[in-house]
Fold these 2 entries.
Entry 1:
Amino acid sequence: MDNLSRGRVGISFASGWQVNDFVLAPENHAHRKELMIENIGVVQKLLARARTVEFRDPKGKTTPVKILPRPVQESLPIWITASGNPDTFKLAGEVGREMC
């Protein structure tokens, strides 16, 4: 999308709250906000220009992964989606402060 819009896209993250959001990974529900923050960092590394991120497969072997085509922007603006839980609004502010 960044390439199609010529560098005018941002990305939003949400931790999810509905249990059906976690049917593919039910173990993630209890730690969803922590996982969201952790994965924001992974996505930012993948979207950063010329970055490769190493991931481990189930046997422990590492595999380099990068996104192609590379984004137009050096880094994409991010938002944390918050709809009603005051703790999520607070978390969004904390994450924003850390990334400045």
Entry 2:
Amino acid sequence: MSLALATGMADLGRTLREGGIPVALGDEIDAARVLARLPGADREEARSALRIALKIRRGDWALFDALLDAVLSRTDPNPVGPRPTASVDGRRSGRTATGARAEVEVEASEAAGEGSSPGYSPAALLRSKPFEACTASDLAAMESVLARLAARLATRRSRRLVPSRGRGVADLRRSLRRALSTGGEMLAFARRTRAVEETRLVFLVDTSGSMEANARFLLAFVLALGRTARSTEVFAFNTELVRLTGRLGAGGIAGTLERLAASVPDWSGGTRIGDCLARFVAEHHHRVDARTVVVVLSDGLDRGEPADLAEAMRAIAGRARRLLWLNPLLGDPRYEPTARGMAAALPFVDALLPAHDLASLEALVPRLSA
């Protein structure tokens, strides 16, 4: 059994436990041995093997699939470029060599007792680094963090209780009904557990020139969500509106972003937010209902008529469960939403939120399913 396989399985086991699926250490060892005997298996065959080896209950299959996809998305399947690395303890697997090198060096110096000043966490620094100051290597290092954020949303538990074959609170009514078939003997309690919340999301991402420094990082976040939260629609807009949902595909985020940039007309060009959102209302209104959270990612710098933007926002707000606007400019404490476009949209949004670094995106996740 290779070290990479062992650490990868440790990462999966930890993720499953954090997501509410109990997995024993012995099951992880069995699963790793099974995968070692299936070197030529495709992804679906390996998925089925893992379900069996890890003893995943049928009722947890959907949750297991989401968590497994989140773990798999932390690694770059593209053989070109930096390769994923894994730490010996298996707790930070899936980082690229570029993104992991600084953290490894810091941990090594701390272990050797170098210096008397407190150590720092590169991951924490990355969370607070403005997107406009980030590099391509930072984007690669963020990929695993974004996957964890997406998994957190995809496995968020609702207040609604559903029947469960495993853990959960006792369901006395169903237990009594079940006991009728055994002559009144209650052999085991029926149980209920909190259902996994599946939020329907629609993202409208501004890819105009004024958003160039932020658009790629915001799209990377949206891509991670789209791969885990399956009921997700993604649109890009500038002077035109383009539906990206069917173009997301598999593979590393950096490569996907390059393909999207090449396929979106007028990328980093002008912007007509009102016209684009009006087109969304006219052509894609059926994708928004009372269960949908619509998120607009834009700085609100619009060259069109404010009245057109206000009318489109009114229509979207009237159909959606919630309408959020993420503005990277809010990272500057001096910013005020006084630009014509932002001022026109503001009366119709449920919340105007910052989106200038990873920390602001982490704060967004609970709002997407609240």
